[in-house]
Amino acid sequence: MPLDEKVCRMLSRCPLCNYSLIGLPDRHKCPECGFSYDKRMEVLTLALRKQVFWLVVWTLVLLGQAAILAYRAGLASIPMIAYAIISFFPLYGFYLWRKQKQDKILLWQDGLQVITKSKPGPVYSWQDIRVAEQSLIDGRAILKMRNGDRITLFGRKFFGSHNRTGDFVKSINNRLSQSAG
Question: Are 26 and 38 in contact (CB under 8 A)?
Fold first, then answer.
């Protein structure tokens, strides 16, 4: 689904520290980290759904196989096996928590901002961006600026596929044409 067709929801958590913004003004600073936000901004994050699904599936398969082998060899009891499998879920929760603090792209009313490792980068104004393109080699999104600079953004690993990267590039170019017109 192209990014322009997504239903625009109000931002409910700070994109930097994940603090709840419910009950706060639409444009304000986060009381937790001081990040200036606009609840109408669009936040793009790492495409995790498939990665997390396969991480869970393969971890449970491997834990199950190890448990069966240990039980057959007389090295483990049923409670020990159950404990090993149940102890996986806090690790999985920690993994998801760490991923929340990873890279994000914020689409503001007046520009685009990249957050890497919970550190906000500069806001690139829509007027400063000439065009967005997708690299055919590695699928990265590239912003070509009016001053001649090229800003390389994330690629397939961030967006999840070449198609989603292409949708992002189309969305940026649509915003650029709207701001120019």
Answer: yes
* Domain topology for 3-46+102-180: PH-domain like (2.30.29)
pLDDT digits (tens, 9 = 90+) for 68-118: 777 778 876 777 767 777 777 777 767 666 655 567 888 888 888 888 877
Which pLDDT tens digit goes with each residue over 125-156? 999 999 999 988 888 889 999 999 999 887 76
Please report, for the chain, the start and end positions of each structural domain, with discontinuous segments joined by +: 3-46+102-180, 49-99
